[in-house]
Amino acid sequence: MEAILLATVGACSAAAAYELLGSENESSKVAHLRAARLCVRACGDALGRLAASRFVSWLLANDDWRECTSALTRKAASAQIETDESLTCTALLVATPVCGLVLGVLFDTWLCLPLCAGALAFGVPAAAAHMRDVQRKKTAEAMPMVFRTLAVAMGAGMTLVQAAEYTGAHVGGAVGEAFARLGLRLRCGTATESALEALTEELPAPGVGLLAVALTISHRTGSPLRGLFQRSARLVERQGEFERLLAVKTAQVRLSVRVVCLLPAVMVAILATISPDFQKGLGTPAGMGCVCAAALLDGLAVFIIRRLVAQVL
């Protein structure tokens, strides 16, 4: 059933393109535009039915796919395109074989289709990991401001609820939203320990555990702990400076590792796409065995490098 719907999407897209590009006469332009709108609407309906399939639901149950599709959905919403996560995931799945078929026709090889599928399979987790790393860095950069804002709020005699709401309003971003939710939980009657524990789970940033303990002590004893928050802000800033210095010192080594690890795979993909002689060799058992052995050795090298880096850091 999904294959029929996919073929329907392709046929409707082709028909819409033909109607839009074939309207040379002014008298038939309105009819062509109406036909194109009908084709686009049918294409959207087919995508909607594909989005309701079990395979799309299974993909969205994965954290990496859900995070990537959520980011793409937000970008589409910023461009005034109405969609949801299921439709975005379906469009991503449909675009992969289409790109593979187009590249296969251009380079006259069937290997473009599995290469595009592999790029999607490995690209989504890599993109999700990159977005999580970026979010973690943004959260870590916002933590000194959080400590200073709490120091000002608690030093002014605000309660824990008021201090959380004040921090959420002045910090902004994901960190501000987390403190706004903390204030909302406390106003709704959630226990202080439970609300702060939820905050530590939402913000995996340096100093959040210390912050939760300090806020609990402040709530129980009534102490503003202004000096502790200001000192914690300086310590978090120094930790961020050390991390940036370490990133600068190891940038050349990390770039070398990425080039050494990715270059063989990229070269094999390029040669398999554009070189007929390499395609013939790759189709033999000896050629495929050599490529598989090289992939295993490359994967072993990546594993060893990650173990060494984990021991150092």
Task: Describe the protein in words.
- The protein has 14 helices and no strands.
- It is mainly alpha-helical.
- The protein has 4 domains: 1-52; 56-106, no CATH class; 134-235; 250-313.
- Helix 12 packs antiparallel against helix 14 (285-312).
- Count the E strands: 0
Mean pLDDT: 75
End-to-end separation in angstroms reads 50 Å
For the largest beta-sheet, the strand count, sense and barrel status come to: none
State the order of secondary-structure elements, H for helix, E for strand: HHHHHHHHHHHHHH
Report the total helices. Answer: 14
> Would you identify the regions where 5 or more consecutive residues have pLDDT less than 50?
1-7, 9-24
Q: In percent, how much strand structure appears in the residues? A: under 5%
Helix content: over 70%
Structural class: mainly alpha
Give the domain tally: 4
Shape, per Cα inertia axes: flat
Kindly provide the radius of gyration, computed on alpha-carbon positions and rounded to a whole number of angstroms. 27 Å
In short:
The chain has 313 residues and is an all-alpha fold. The protein has helices spanning 2-21, 29-51, 54-60, 63-78, 85-107, 112-155, 160-171, 173-187, 192-202, 208-221, 226-249, 251-274, 276-282, 285-312.
Topology diagram in text:
Layout: H1 2-21, H2 29-51, H3 54-60, H4 63-78, H5 85-107, H6 112-155, H7 160-171, H8 173-187, H9 192-202, H10 208-221, H11 226-249, H12 251-274, H13 276-282, H14 285-312
